[in-house]
Fold:
Amino acid sequence: MTVIGADMLRKELDHLKFERRPKITEAIGTARELGDLKENAEYHAAREEQGICEARIRDIEGKLSNAQIIDVTKMPNTGRVIFGVTVTILNVDTDEEMTYRIVGDDEANIKENLISVSSPIARGLVGKNLDDEITIETPGGKTDYEIIRVDYI
Structure:
């Protein structure tokens, strides 16, 4: 996991524990005051939301406790593509440049050019070096790329 990904998870965890959880507890208390719990839709909805919130808290805490956090900014830039780097590749056929940051599965967001380390493109790039030409098999077929920039940022 990258440092940024770990920070995002910690912020979400704080939000869930210190903002959302108290609101849900308050909603359960308010719904409980309405009377018969068997037919109280507000109570059941709040309890269901509480279960979802608690499950997400456990999930995040588990991920953070088992995560190995990689900070590439503290590593020397050798031009080698590794987890956490930002890499710019050139499609040899179309001359289209694409820049991606290789991140963990939980951090991946293609709209922000954050690709999972387990994606076909990242698997094809990891271990390669600046100026290497590679062929990556994607769901759309084989494509030739050249690595034109590797940033440890």
